[in-house]
UniProtKB/TrEMBL annotation, chain B:
Belongs to the binding-protein-dependent transport system permease family. This is Cellobiose transport system permease protein. Its main location: membrane. Residues 1-30 are annotated as: Disordered. One of its GO terms (biological process) is transmembrane transport. It comes from Parafrankia irregularis. Coiled coil: none annotated. Residues 102-320 form the ABC transmembrane type-1 domain. The chain crosses the membrane at residues 44-67, 106-127, 139-160, 190-211, 241-261, 304-323. Residues 1-21 have a biased composition (Low complexity). The lineage of its organism: Bacteria, Bacillati, Actinomycetota, Actinomycetes, Frankiales.
From TrEMBL, chains C, D:
GO terms for biological process: carbohydrate transport. GO terms for cellular component: ATP-binding cassette (ABC) transporter complex, substrate-binding subunit-containing. Coiled coil: none annotated. Gene3D superfamilies: 2.40.50.100, Nucleic acid-binding proteins, P-loop containing nucleotide triphosphate hydrolases. This is Multiple sugar transport system ATP-binding protein. Keywords: ATP-binding, Nucleotide-binding, Sugar transport, Transport. Residues 4-234 form the ABC transporter domain. One of its GO terms (molecular function) is ATP hydrolysis activity. Pfam families: ABC_tran, OB_MalK. InterPro entries: AAA+_ATPase (IPR003593), ABC_transporter-like_ATP-bd (IPR003439), ABC_transporter-like_CS (IPR017871), ABC_transpr_MalK-like (IPR015855), ABC_transpr_MalK/UgpC-like (IPR047641), Mo/tungstate-bd_C_term_dom (IPR008995), NA-bd_OB-fold (IPR012340), OB_MalK-like (IPR040582). SUPFAM superfamilies: MOP-like, P-loop containing nucleoside triphosphate hydrolases.
From TrEMBL, chain E:
It is found in: Cell membrane. Its main location: membrane. CDD domains: TM_PBP2 (cd06261). This is Cellobiose transport system permease protein. It comes from Parafrankia irregularis. It is a multi-pass membrane protein. The keyword Membrane applies.
Amino acid sequence: GDDGGKTKLTINTFGVFGYTDLYREFEASHPDVEIVETVSEYNDHHNNLVNHLAAGSGAADVEAVDEGFIAQLKATPEQFVNLNDLGASDRESDYPAFKWSASLSADGRTQIGLGTDVGGLAMCYRTDLLEAAGLPSDPAAVSALWPTWDAYFKTGRDFAAKNTGVKFFDAGTNIYNAQIFQLDESYYATGTSDVIVGSNPKVKTAFDATAKAISDGLSAGLVAFEDEWVTAMKEGTFATITCPAWMQGYIKENAPETAGKWNIAEIPGGSGNWGGSWLTIPAQSDHKDLAYELVSFLTAPEQQTRIFKETGNFPSSVTSIKDSAVQSFTNPFFDDAPTGKIFGESAISLEPQYQGSKHGAIRQAMEHGIQRIEQENQAADKAFSESVDEAERAAR
Amino acid sequence: MTIATPAHPAETAAETAAAARETPRRRRKPHTTFRRIGRATVPYWLIAPFFVIFTAFGLFPMLYTAWISLTDRDMLRPGAAKFIGLGNYTDLFSDEFFWNAVGNTFLLMAMSSVPQLAFALILAHILNTRLRARTLFRMGVLLPNITSIVAVTIVFSQIFGRQFGLISWLLDTVGLDPINWQAGEWTSKIAIASMVIWRWTGYNALIYLGAMQAIPKEHFEAAAMDGASTWRQLWHITLPALRPTIAFTALISVIGQIQLFTEPLLFDNSPGSVSGGNSHQFQTLALLLYEESFRLHNFGYGSAIAWVMFLVTMALAAGAYFVTRGTSRLTGGSR
Amino acid sequence: MSTIELRDVTLTYDDRPTLESLNLVVEDGEFLVLIGPSGSGKTTALRIVAGLLAPTAGQVLVGGRDVTDVPPADRDLAMVFQNYALYPNMTVRRNMEFALRLAKVDRAERDRRVTAAAEILGLTDLLDRRPKALSGGQRQRVAMGRAIVRQPRAFLMDEPLSNLDAKLRVRVRGEIARLQRSLGTTTLYVTHDQTEAMTMADRIAVLHDGRLQQLGTPDELFSHPANVFVATFIGSPPTNLVPGLLSESPGTGSLELRVGDQTVEVPAAIRAGLAAPTGTEVTIGVRPHDVQTEPPADPALIFDVEVDLIERLGTETLAHGAVPSGPPTSPETCRFTAALDPRTPVTSGGKLRLYAAVDRLHLFDSATGETLRRRALLAAA
Amino acid sequence: MSTIELRDVTLTYDDRPTLESLNLVVEDGEFLVLIGPSGSGKTTALRIVAGLLAPTAGQVLVGGRDVTDVPPADRDLAMVFQNYALYPNMTVRRNMEFALRLAKVDRAERDRRVTAAAEILGLTDLLDRRPKALSGGQRQRVAMGRAIVRQPRAFLMDEPLSNLDAKLRVRVRGEIARLQRSLGTTTLYVTHDQTEAMTMADRIAVLHDGRLQQLGTPDELFSHPANVFVATFIGSPPTNLVPGLLSESPGTGSLELRVGDQTVEVPAAIRAGLAAPTGTEVTIGVRPHDVQTEPPADPALIFDVEVDLIERLGTETLAHGAVPSGPPTSPETCRFTAALDPRTPVTSGGKLRLYAAVDRLHLFDSATGETLRRRALLAAA
Amino acid sequence: MTGPTRVSTRRSTRGSGEGSGPLRYPLLFAVVIISAFPVYWTFMIPSRTNDVVGQLPPPFLPGGHFFENAARVFDTVNFGKALMNSVIVAGSITLSTLLFCSLAGFAFAKLNFRGRNALLLVVVSTMMVPVQLGIIPLYIEMQELGWGNRLISVVLPTAVTAFGVVFMRQSVIQAVPDELLEAGRMDGCGTLRLYWHVALPALRPAMAVLGLLTFMQAWNDFMWPLIVLNAENPTVQVALSTLASGHYRDNTLVLAGTALGTIPVLVIFALFGRQIIGGIMEGAVKG
Ligand SMILES: Nc1ncnc2c1ncn2[C@@H]1O[C@H](COP(=O)(O)OP(=O)(O)OP(=O)(O)O)[C@@H](O)[C@H]1O
Ligand SMILES: Nc1ncnc2c1ncn2[C@@H]1O[C@H](COP(=O)(O)OP(=O)(O)OP(=O)(O)O)[C@@H](O)[C@H]1O
Ligand SMILES: [Mg+2]
Ligand SMILES: [Mg+2]
């Protein structure tokens, strides 16, 4: 509504977008606009967004959407404003291809969101724990240990053989997902709604490799993002962890006492992306143009650079990524690792992967399989076939 | 879980008779004066708020849901709903996830209701003795009912942690292996059942305690003089006298457990998961409903699940009603 | 069969004594009724005997054995409760044999005893019913049956008739008394109804405020109440109480009783039986049935009643009213009730002159409330 | 003050009539007691009068006006309930003035009436207490007070004494009767206790199975019961019933009464008052108080009682036992109770010869149970 | 036996439950500790700093950081407004539930009207409707009514509940004798006055119970408020969800908020606990 003569522009986000100062700046340049931000918990935010879209009202003028939900939401592009109509097409060239296409409708016409950040993949590791197992700890040397996943798992077996009482990685799902994120085609046949989760050999390869690693005792058997995973991070019971850009923040804030013990190496098997968000404008918004102004302001390269410096959210703008401020950024918590460079390269070089509308549900079904192997010692083949069944049911 | 109401279905018939007493059939002319009419409508005014609010905010959504359950509808595409008749229902009956959820729901119902009521009985039996600080104990056992869900979630996730949970830690200190509560088919149910039991035992105990205090003291004394120990008294005196109350609490607990949602949702603390475990080992009907509707956006299918739940609950309640009424007739009155 | 003995039994709730140093012996085979107003401690005493309550001090003996620390079940006493305390979920038969089952009495013996008891009590046809399906009187008999089958050393009964209606109460009290006499089982019976006590008891113990007031046969209590309390408690309608003065006549040395403005001489025979009063003020008890409308031959007190209520019971007529009391100068009155022959002409609002023979009067010390009758005579009575 | 009239009032529950065509007039200022055993329909009748229940058929008139369709509050009747139905959350004063407040009686008047009523009932000091803090008798008085302050046209009372203990009941029944007489308010009073009915009533209506059995003064009911039911219901202990044969002697033409092996002639005076029996079999009612141990001058029946229970009440002694009944050839017996002078020597197990004067007998047709006394005489009595 | 006047302290009914014997106090203490543990935890954790969270064994004793963490709650979210809103929401739901449910319960228990039993059956069966799926239609409805993001949309749907009606009906049957109502009617009360002067005073314990249960449920409800309200106008539970939205798990912060949100409930419980317990037990007497 409008009150006090000012247009109230609402924006719903989750987690830490770090926009507060930017809102004030925007308001300064738009004296008749008042921005109201609502921050919710990640799942609550997305559930509410879906509820509000389903009900036809209640959504904010600008809604943040995470990578885990974007595929599903872009499947109903009619629920969102086509940002291309408002001039977003100009921005296409500034985004890595995968980022731009991830929020583009299946027919390629409707762009439902502008990217805010990306989650380029790397591998974080505990220098002290690798050293304890007689392995190198320098990032370059460590990266050299695992150019491929096979090499990574082999290193893991060497690590395990040293019996340091520490596992090689935290959770099977993180390793599995990282491999999936690197594929050019995963659960859906590109450009279609055909689910190929059961027939895509690359999926099976990733699944089996992860299963083998688990049975080789490389996994700490944690469930990612559970409380215990956090505890384990503090206690140092695993040596490496799949590390999208935003994971730095997780580690730093959840386990501040481990400062200086971490470093960052490249991810095995080439680059990949996990996470990152978009700002979208629901079709039900009453202030579409104004909302777009805000979205383009917030996602502009210079703002992305600024947010990166303030919060560590890695920019999704090529301009911003190439900015020297980003490129030269180092993270003292991670032993001054050149994080700007590591994540930037990973992001720019990434090939887009097509995701169908039930991608999230399929991913969860596959994760269930990995976890069954990890938690319940289920046989890999059985876990895979059950997961594929579940995935296909979810996608029906 | 809904809260227990101390209403006993078997009473309804008797009360109906008692109420009918006020106006036995009359052979005289109908009253037509305005005053009488005014008076006759008063009861309807008194119950109107409930029915107005229920119609607006309960019945409308319910009927809407009933309609939705006959369509194939994606949550986000309200315009693209297809009428498919009973299609969702027939799909449901061939859906192994549905049957898995049915099995889990009833298993959890049994695992939580039976011990919960049994513990409540024992607790009430103990509370029914001459005690110091009686009110304090009684208030203490009711605390779980007023504890915030957030606190419950956090505490229980710390208790039932896979590796670093309190129980696993305790097991570890005595040299036993930790238990991966969430993963196991049974351990997960035990954990969830214990959350339910924790939450409702005290409340039921107080209800039983109330009923126990209505048992004449002389019955216990007579039994004591006849040579019955206290446990025999519990068996021969307390239990029979509490039968209607037990039947009632069992019914309420069963209705609550059919709709069991919060505990399994919270127990699955890997963020965002609503599938009730990796193998759906603790996915209840309500959780399946939630997953189908809000995660997979199969609004029609979810609505069908909701209606099946509703009908099952009604059937169970009706069954319980007739069973208790039947037994009460056999034993000559339920009180 | 067995005696029951209470020795110096005291029970204190929250520092308020409910029973004070109670001494009581129920003889073998005797029917002893414990009577007293509500709250006097009757139930308490009974429950102490039963073992349901432990005394603060004192001992309970059953058959000469100290059972103070023996649990209820092992005292071999059977109790009949006011509300019968029948187990509602068991049939009459199960109710009756429950104690025997717990005592592991074998089946044949159980059946034998239950059948016999049911026979005696006329319950044979009801054995398979549940208590709910029985009338009040029948329930009462089941409660009795439950006591009988145990063949206990004594029966304890706590107001077993108070839940019955008036008619039934009269009938059942007869049944119980007959039964007790035929079984010969020692019985301690609690009631607050003096009619019940009078009709059923071999001896009556009157309790008031936790203290024993008098112990004796119904007749003793009625004819020679030990104090004002017993006098008013036993007998219905209750004894009228009129203040009076007892003094030796300065002239003749004879003992004179003054009530209002009349003075009668106490005959020597009666005087011999009197203890000296602590003062001259006495309370005179006059039973409503001990007055007559015709002047008797013996010396008599005259009561002029201003009748304000007539109750015609058919068999007799009760006239209630006020009589002048106190010295003639003061206009004080006190309430007075007379039980008259139903044919006596009397109307409400009228005056009635009544005579009470001096030998029918009960004299009490008005300070202590104790009777002026000599102890020796009391004991002998 | 006002009459209350029930005209052909019928009430049917589930096709079972609870009241059948009841006709009853409570005269202005009269104290009428409705008595009957449990379930006879007393409460039902009272609630119909109060307007709490609508009759299936028939009319209720108060002060001559048909109030059948008038709501309870507008009938201007006050009711005293069995358990008093005091509002637990209000003080005694508020309880008493509640109806006046609702009727918008002004404050001064309310205070005046409450003060007056409290005075009469001795409640002045209790006005600020709540019902919980009152004893049973006090509560009863508050309930009365609540009725009095309304100054209603009539009082309706449903067993107002049944929650009091025996002693208190006797006292309070006197108080109520006195109060009613002094106020002169028409009163319809329900009880199942015949003593209450006898002592309090101007007239008594006996109800049984929803039908009126007899209506008359206590004396009429006691002396001339209309049927066996009334004979046994009124009077305590209940009338003894003995079977007999009534026949005209073939020789003399005189009327003979045969009981067992004795035959007595019915004096002409009595015979004149008798209606012809439908058969020869009669039921003879003998009141326990109408027997004597000495042979009377008048012709009398002799009862040889095998005494099996003695109840000594102090004021009288009840002897219970069996008397032979039926023809001399058959050994049938029936139960018999006699109320004797307390000084009569009698022991349980002994024999007792009793005489009942023929003019004291009540004769009933044994087929219908109706009295053989002529209607005309009944009405005149 | 040592003397003639042996004084003993035994004074117990050897009746029910006596033989649960010496174990009953330890047992009861255990039960109460288990029951109270999460509440204790809610206050203990926020009194520590975040680094102890997840330690094994966990710290069992409180530290000194409660107010610091509580202050952070107020910094992070609009907790004052949330508390205010929750009080308004839970308060109005409780009041309206008590009023409407007792009215309807009274009517169902003591008044006689056509269709009563059928209507009662309707009420009872509505208790069995699973709530989760009504949410979307209900939400649409609220938006249509223009009540989105307004407290009234949280209050109205539960302003009167079937459970409450059935509960109150049962309480009326038990607590209000017919004779009392008849006395009231003879005194000149109409139906509403009977309700107000006669029934209501007798229903106090039952109302205390229903009131607390309703208040608790309204206070702890999060699913519906989360959907219909946003963080600009939150209830406590909505605000708590915002507290949990950060990158990492700040249990001290979340539980500090929870603790603050629990205090009003604990206060109510402490004030009315006695009555409530009495009421629950009374309500069950004839259950
Ligand atoms: N558990 C208790 N705690 C405290 N006082 C008690 C307890 N039980 C009984 N009393 C008190 O002891 C006294 C005697 O009680 P008791 O039940 O023996 O009386 P009673 O003579 O049987 O009376 P009634 O005729 O009313 O049954 C009463 O004043 C009562 O208040
Ligand atoms: N609501 C009812 N439905 C069916 N029958 C009823 C109802 N109320 C009373 N009755 C029957 O009506 C008859 C008369 O009942 P009522 O209460 O008038 O008896 P009463 O003479 O007052 O008895 P009591 O002395 O026990 O109070 C009884 O047989 C009773 O069972
Ligand atoms: Mg007693
Ligand atoms: Mg009655």
